[in-house]
Write a structure and sequence with these properties.
The protein has about 375 residues and is an alpha+beta fold. The structure holds ligand DP6. Ligand DP6 binds next to helix 4.
């Protein structure tokens, strides 16, 4: 498929007004996306677990307007108007207008709720951009009259990617691959696809407890970080390593080998941060407590034989990953040993999910 496949034909219908609601989850990458070309074309393929509890619920209300001169929209978070979000949405609309030619026909009211605390340091761009893209696709489907399920989901992921790369991986579950990879059939740089290979029962309902180490604003945005991979001395090797890691992970997911899984996932997390440490300008997103937590996890694993491990995002928070059958024991370990390293002792318990869904009646 190419970009042109997402430019629609003539719309059959027109509607005066309407409203649609979608909820879409966050995701956590196991093999990381770090480094991109223009418009979120990734420099290596990535794979993530889709989450279940951390999600964005977006209602898109649309009202036909007279003039097609400009975009017209308002954004609300938890019922409060947020003019601060408008530039991001405007950039997004400009980028996707060619694929959604009806955007200037309507005034949009975008109402968004996140299930996780706003200032938790959890990126809301993946869940937020995917939820908004799904709402827009819902409207497009209505305007066109009909649309195949595959086209709907691929294009929604394609649009989400244009908003934020990792958002392309939030629509389905429980594992999604985004980026071309020789071992993953039909993989694409343009949108995420469901990982359609055998997955061992060890990974069923895999747990992800997010430790909130630092809830502050990121000092370096992901986009800036990605761009520092241009001319990065280790870039080529890194992209090659990520690609190999995805092949290795595919095998570990099949066999259920948790030791291999742990090695790949932790190495990916540390390499991501190693790329930040070795870019110019260099920067550090981990905090002392990020390292304290990692050391405690390693200690606990050595002492107990547990299969708990960690991964990191572009921030200081730690995602603690473990099999469902260790839920009780690791839960206790997190409560007693790890939570003191979190801001106000806060953490969020999540697990793998199946992706976004349309919400029929918002209660
Ligand atoms: C470290 O998707 O936030 O979380 O495409 O510029 O919006 P943009 O970046 P973003 O980058 C996420 C990077 C990461 C790794 C990952 O999710 O794969």
């Amino acid at each position: 498929m190419t970009e042109n496949d997402f430019i629609p034909g003539h719309h059959n219908q027109t509607f005066q007004d309407g409203s649609v609601t979608w909820e879409s989850p966050s995701n956590i990458a196991l093999v990381k996306y770090w480094g991109k070309l223009d418009h979120q074309i990734p420099q290596n393929a990535s794979i993530s677990f889709t989450l279940n509890q951390c999600k964005t619920i977006t209602t898109l209300k649309y009202l036909k307007k007279e003039s097609r001169r400009d975009f017209s929209f308002e954004v609300f978070l938890d019922g409060e108007k947020k003019t601060g979000f408008e530039p991001k949405v405007k950039t997004f609309f400009e980028r996707v207008e060619v694929y959604l030619p009806f955007l200037k026909d309507y005034h949009f009211r975008i109402e968004t709720i996140n299930t996780f605390p706003h200032s938790s340091g959890i990126a809301s761009s993946a869940s937020g951009m995917s939820a908004l893209s799904l709402c827009l696709m819902d409207l497009e489907k209505r305007l066109l009259g009909k649309m195949s399920k595959d086209y709907f989901i691929n294009k929604a992921s394609f649009l989400a990617r244009l908003g934020s790369g990792s958002a392309s991986r939030s629509l389905e579950g429980e594992l999604v691959v985004w980026g071309e990879h020789t071992d993953i059939e039909n993989s694409s740089n343009l949108f995420g696809i469901k990982f359609d290979y055998p997955v061992h029962k060890n990974f069923k309902n895999y747990q992800d407890t997010i430790l909130l180490v630092d809830k502050g604003e990121k000092q370096v945005s992901s986009t800036v970080g990605h761009n520092l991979m241009h001319n990065h001395p280790f870039a080529e090797k890194r992209f090659e390593q990520a690609s190999n890691n995805l092949s290795l992970l595919k095998e570990a997911l099949k066999t259920g080998n948790l030791d291999d899984f742990i090695e790949i996932v932790e190495s990916e997390a540390l390499t991501l941060h190693a790329m930040m440490l070795t870019s110019l300008p260099y920067f550090i997103l981990m905090k002392p407590n990020t390292l304290n937590i990692i050391n405690k996890i390693w200690e606990y694993r050595k002492q107990t034989g547990s299969k708990v491990c960690f991964t990191l995002d572009a921030g200081a928070n730690v995602h603690v990953l473990f099999p469902e059958k260790e839920k009780l024991k690791v839960g206790k370990f997190i409560d007693q040993t790890l939570s003191p390293y979190c801001q106000n002792g806060q953490f969020i318990e999540d697990f793998t999910g199946t992706g976004a869904r349309r919400v029929e009646h918002l209660t």
